[in-house]
Amino acid sequence: MNNRDSKPGGRAGVPSGHTGIWVFLGLTAWSALAVWFFYSNGWQYYYGDAEAHLNIARRISDNLTPGYDQVGTVWLPLPHWLMLPLAHIDKLWINGLAGAIPSAAGFVLGACLLFAAVRRVLESTAAAVTATALVAFNPNLMYLQSTAMTEAIFLACLMGLFYCSVRFAESQSWWAVVGAGLAALAGTLTRYEGWFLIPFVAAYFLTVGKRRRVEAALLFGFLATLGPLYWLGHNWWLDGDPLAFYRGPYSARAIQGTAAYPGMNDWAAAFRYFRTAVQLCAGSLPAFMALAGAVALLWRRKLWPLALLALPGIFYIWSLHSGGTPIHVPTLPPFSWYNTRYGLAALPLLAVAAAGLVAIAPRGVSAVLAALVVAAAAVPWLLHPQPRNWITWEESRVNSEARRAWTDEAAAYLGPRYRVGEGLLTSFSEVTVVYRRLGIPLHDTLTGDNGLLWLAALQRPELWLHQDWAVLPVGDPMWKAIQPMSRAGTHYTLEKTIPVGGAPSIQIFRR
Prior knowledge:
It is built from 23 helices and five strands. By secondary structure, the protein is mainly alpha-helical. Helix 10 (193-208) runs antiparallel to helix 16. The protein is globular.
């Protein structure tokens, strides 16, 4: 690999040969291997959020009241839409691969776009391979791309935005503007940090545009803001409040409540907790190499890659400070695990910055330096290969222990007793994992997401409540409602109580 690769007689930095094809094939094989590894060990759905994403995708088509409304109002919809066709297939829903496949595809696409963008902006195949390898060999990201989590899909959106913005700076092409706008649009429908990027990228188009720069910035802004505008309208349509995702009863702010946490209204603490999460997710050595590489990029006046890829991390520091979104890491008080995966937001930045070291190396040395940089970053993971050292996996394991215990018990009880078609009065929450594992279709369940059917069952159970079973957390509104139902001629008998560590018990009733 040469520091500056080009076709004979062509411009440096333009991809040549079949390197890109080999990168794609290698990433695809690596991603599939990771999916197989986590799937075969039964670790794909340790994250409760991953389970919820998969089941939301399923309930859109498999439901007593299927349809658009089942998307919900808090989590952005694109990942669920991508999972929907696969989640409709019973086998892929039950084994969980319906959630892993779109995520893995997002990783492969994102890593390929990262390779193409770095190769173009730094005019170095060695630097592009370095950045791509630093992302691909990170076990925390590889775990998330093997689940129904949204980080890998957003990686594809962010890298698409990176690549198209770089192409625009070179070519001033309208197609690059459209590509950037569509990538940003997809990002705004995947994760909320995608909203934060829009004004900065629009300003970039204004800065680097040579002719019709205003038109280019406006076109990008129009395409990108379609996502937030759609989501505001969606929330208004479903909930009567366009900001229900932010301040509604199921929002992150509502879940956090008024409880204080480290970083709230404290910029220094917010930075410290995010920085620690980054180190735990990416490793300390890549961070040090990135600092040196960032100096090299600034020396070469390659500011945009650093600026763009720093924005997601800035968003999370801001969210920690004033958005009601805490990060807990095991090395800082309260010494626990919560949202540690947010540290991966800085991984592309670290990878590209570290690649800057390779980009300035003399011809003939870049390939060796690239191998050394990648090896140095990989050594800590190789010296401690146990999954417990992968912070995202460990967070999912620790925080799911109680859930896995009680869902195992509930599945063991219901499995030999429940017959499809008998019906379940329940809630769409962690209980749904039991139905997925047992292959019980969601149209057998009546939950609060069924709107009028749910309200009718509450108000006139003698007419509208036909489910033979009820599986409910103690204190749930329907749990409270079924207690006096015997007066209306509807009798449910408590058959089993399953304790849940640190949460209300689950009770199973039979009619």
